[in-house]
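BUG: 3D viewer hangs when loading the predicted structure for this chain

Environment: internal workstation, default settings.
Expected: structure renders.
Actual: progress bar stalls at 90%.

Input used:
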Amino acid sequence: ARERRHAVHFAVLYSESPKWSNDGVVVAPQDAYFMDPNAFYKNGPPYDSPSLEKLSSDQKKIPVPYIKLDGKKVPPDTKRIWPYACQ
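Structure tokens produced before the viewer hung:
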């Protein structure tokens, strides 16, 4: 049997518009764009891959908050974390 490894599947849509649609299968914001996975951890825009690519080297350094095995968050006030606990 093939070993199944844990994986993160990232698909976040974002939009300036508060409007959305629901076709019974998918709920999506109007005029939506796919968010770059690295941008999820940024505190503000840009969120799209082409714009992130144009950032300076220093601006591309995006710290990824995480939670420790004991439940403590790093940094403590973060609202988003890496999906797996770290040592």
